[in-house]
Design a protein that fits this description.
This protein has 8 helices and 9 strands. The chain is α/β, with parallel strands linked by helices. The longest helix has 10 residues. The protein is globular, with a radius of gyration of 17 Å.
Amino acid sequence: MDTEFWLQRWRDGQIGFHRDRVMPLLEKHWPSLALPAGSQVLVPLAGKSLDIIWLASQGHRVLAVELSAVAVAQFFAENRLTPTSHDSSLGRHHVAGNIEVICGDIFNLDVATLAGCAAVYDRAALVALPGVMRQRYVTEVYGRLPERCRGLLLTIDYPQQEMDGPPFAVNPAEVSTLYEGRWTIQALDERDILAQEPKFAARGLTRMSTSVYRLEHRA
């Protein structure tokens, strides 16, 4: 992950990847995880996503991680939340109600920090990483999540040679390669989205789809 690339995008306001509404696929498929009330949910590479607010509104405790201090500040300001803050070896922690956002490197999260996570919601993290880093991400971050942890993973697929990421193309075969063995994988949804993403069609894409997977960490 090119840290400076993402920090500069936030500094320059080049955040076309940010959505100004809750992801409909989250609303549709989150119930499939059947989480108990009060469960803690990890949201990696969270940006200032409104999905955090939605997850908290469902009664979850949200642990979000974001590299950019600009993104974190905008998240709390735009949602009219006033957090308390403290520092640790993981970065700067901002807490407001049942939402905690760590401004720091996702790869620094340790087993103790993730031990309370019953679920992970990954809409923007896996697809933000180049191929050489995706295996490390799954091994080091997902690998530190506890047994029986459940996940909702959203991916994007397109002919990678037609466009440089991010977002990067992650096809079903790669999802199997990355997660098989330690995670049970269930494909929940797949749909063509190129017509709804004209900016990508303008960049030359001939095909673009999104997929949703339910994951469960095997004991």
